[in-house]
Design brief:
Largest sheet: 3 strands, antiparallel
Number of strands: 3
Oligomer: single chain
Order of helices and strands: HHHHHEEEHHHHHHHHHH
Structural class: mainly alpha
Number of domains: 1
Shape: globular
Radius of gyration: 21 Å
Distance between the termini: 29 Å
């Protein structure tokens, strides 16, 4: 199974400005990873531009709130960047407890908020989504659990124990239920196990069991539908999204409306786009959830293929820089943190863009640093702070 090369074999000369093994800079420049910061500035600026024109005529969204999320996120990033991430290593039980409390908090009376059939939000002066912030603790939990094996998990008992601990947040998030966030948790766990050295046999067996359980879920739901007259395990909209993805004949039904409008928006952008104020699909209300789930369609319609290419290049720069940071540390815990974050971002990017093109099922997974959402933006900046902390301590 492919893994990140052994950290001990990475040459100091490879690290350079990314790993920083031989850097003697001090002061502010010694604290900042310049390639990473420049890439984030460009990516976030690109996102703010897109969001501004996506929400300008929509009273349900506030650009100032998005800008506030960026401002608070930058402060949080700098604070976390300055903290030694290694102090979080080994607190597996505490991290697990924090995860459970965060994810289950929307079920508490008086503060839990039910939105669109899911109890995923809490209101404490402002409305926030704890499951979004739990992505940070899920990553720390996975890194803490797997790093203790020093790159090799070849004992089946230890593998099952680690897998069981890391699956607890997923089981908790499904009580809301929030399938999109749950899938993100699962992908973080998968990355941790692959990078952490789990045997290929264990991973393949786990994948086969997961696929079997998925088919079993559909079968049980069909039996419940036949006996009780309605589906119980999967919500109607979740089933409809899967059917649209698997059967293109559903594309012309009400369930396929979102996908159709997304494709129209992307295709109408052409090479250079319609212009910033001419994205008719989103500004005229044809494209549902344009600033959040379908922000990629807004960008493609306004800026065309050229704008999409710029976005993808920025994402590639971000991933490459983070890979170099992971290679530049000799601490398994730090390496796993960075790789789990990068893996999560890659999954979100591929799923969000793929669902708008009909290549992936439609989910509520947003596009990193681009989609509207102050909590989402804050979490991404906090994760950047963790990456920066690993980079700084690797020097």
């Amino acid at each position: 199974m492919a893994r990140v090369p052994e950290i001990s074999t990475v040459k100091n000369a490879e690290r350079g400005a990314y790993g920083g093994a031989k850097s003697q800079q001090t002061g502010v420049l010694g604290f900042i990873n310049i390639p990473l910061v420049i890439t984030i500035i460009l990516l976030v600026g690109f996102g703010l531009l897109t969001v501004y024109y996506a929400v300008v005529n929509d009273p349900d969204y506030s650009f100032s709130r998005q800008a506030l999320g960026v401002a608070v996120g930058v402060i949080a990033m700098m604070l976390i960047w300055a903290i030694d991430y290694r102090k979080l290593s080994g607190y597996t039980t505490l991290l697990l407890v924090i995860n459970v409390v965060l994810i289950l908090s929307p079920h508490l009376p008086f503060i839990g908020v039910n939105t669109m059939g899911a109890t995923s939000w809490i209101y404490i002066g402002t409305q926030i989504q704890p499951g979004e912030f739990a992505k940070i603790t899920v990553i720390l939990l996975a890194a803490s659990v797997v790093s203790r094996y020093n790159g090799k998990i070849d004992n089946p008992t230890e593998y099952l124990k680690s897998l069981g601990i890391m699956l607890i947040p997923f089981l908790c998030i499904m009580t809301q239920p929030d399938l999109g966030t749950g899938l993100v948790y699962l992908f973080i766990v998968a990355v941790a196990l692959v990078i952490g050295g789990a045997r290929a046999k264990y991973l393949l067996i786990t994948l086969a069991v997961a696929i079997g359980l998925l088919f079993l879920l559909f079968g049980i739901d069909e039996l419940l539908k036949n006996s009780m007259g309605e589906y119980k395990l999967l919500k109607n909209y979740q089933r409809a999204r899967l059917m649209v993805f698997m059967d293109q004949t559903y594309a012309h039904t009400d369930e396929g409306y979102n996908l159709n409008q997304a494709k129209i928006a992307i295709g109408s952008g052409g090479f250079f786009g319609k212009g910033l104020m001419n994205a008719s699909q989103s500004t005229m209300g044809f494209l549902p959830e344009a600033p959040t789930d379908f922000i990629f369609c807004v960008l493609a319609e306004m800026l065309g293929f050229f704008g999409v290419l710029v976005l993808l290049v920025l994402y590639i720069f971000l991933v490459v820089i983070c890979f170099r940071i992971a290679r530049g540390t000799n601490d398994p815990f730090g390496m796993l943190i960075v790789m789990c974050i990068v893996g999560m971002w890659l999954f979100q990017i591929l799923e969000n863009i793929g669902m708008t093109c009909g290549l992936m099922p439609i989910t509520g997974i947003p596009l990193p640093f681009i989609s509207y959402g102050s909590s989402f933006m804050l979490v991404n900046f906090m994760l950047l702070g963790l990456i920066g902390s690993v980079w700084l301590r690797s020097r």
